[in-house]
Amino acid sequence: MTLTIIETGLVPEPIRADFADYPDMFRQLISPEAPDLAFETVSVIKGDALPEAASLDAILITGSPAGVYDDEPWIAPLMQLIRDAAAAGIPMVGICFGHQVMAEALGGKVEKSDKGWGIGRHTYDVRTCPDWMNGDCPDRISVPVSHQDQVVALPPGAHVLARSDFAPYAALDYGRTPAITFQCHPEFKADYSAALYTIRKGRPLSETAVDMAIQSLEEPLDNQRLGAWIARFLLKAGA
Predict the structure, then answer these.
(1) Calpha distance 16→155 (Å, rounded)
(2) Are strands 171-173 and 159-163 parallel, antiparallel or unpaired?
(3) 3-state secondary structure string, 51-98?
(4) CA 67 → CA 102, 190, 214, distances in Å?
(5) Residues 6 or more apart from 217 whose CB is under 8 A from it?
(6) Closest by Cα among 97, 90, 121 to 2
(7) Alpha-carbon dihedral of residues 144, 44, 88, 30, nearest 10 degrees?
(8) Of the residues 116, 163, 193, 235, which has the fewest C-beta atoms closer than 10 A?
(9) Cβ of 38: how many Cβ atoms within 10 Å?
(10) How far apart (Å, rounded) are the C-alpha atoms in residues 23 and 29?
(11) What tens digit of pLDDT does each residue of 169-222 get?
């Protein structure tokens, strides 16, 4: 199986030389649980054309500074790819913007949240335990986040995997459509998250919020658990 990573955002320029790009972060996250999985990148943010859904084994859509409502030329074609992949039963994973654009494309609703920015370590209640978790189903998970937009209405057929008061639709399973999505960033290690928040200190994030977010990253994170979940989901869905 080849996982096509659709790159919709770039590591910000001030810290780009210090960290891997987002597709490589996902390779590092997923590969330990799926060493035979192959990867390819389609970078719409760099102008790559989207492939036909029927040519793909599986899809992962990354985070992005864009919102689903923005006038980016690649967003509408990406939504059509999502709908085509869903109709064809191609496994999909969405992360942050990927979580949002999949929900919007498949009949949900995304808005800029009046709760403001979510940053730092967020903890979610796990609501369901699909069989692809292989029994690895804790009551709660804690993962770094960086988002202002949120899913505010579920797409038809989707149900909540994990939630919090801040993000009631924080993780979704699309049921008969082989797709899962997460608002959080399991690919963001603590050092990258801290660097990302720091370059946004003062604009758009307050110094106090950034300091608290960075401090929160000292607590245990479930990034590797979510990486294993993604790998297991893809392998089961693609079997």
Answers:
(1) 35
(2) antiparallel
(3) CCHHHCCEEEECCCCCCCCCCCCCHHHHHHHHHHHHHHCCCEEEECHH
(4) 12, 24, 24
(5) 120, 121, 144, 190, 193, 194
(6) 90
(7) -40
(8) 116
(9) 11
(10) 10
(11) 999 999 999 999 999 999 999 999 999 999 999 889 999 999 999 999 999 999
Q: What is the pLDDT of residues 92-113, one digit of tens each?
A: 999 999 999 999 999 999 999 9
- Calpha distance 233→91 (Å, rounded): 8
Residue 132 to residue 168: CA distance in whole angstroms? 22
Give the DSSP letter string of 144-158: EEEESEEEEEPPTT-
List, by residue number, the catalytic residues.
96, 185, 187
State both tokens at 208. Answer: 């106090």
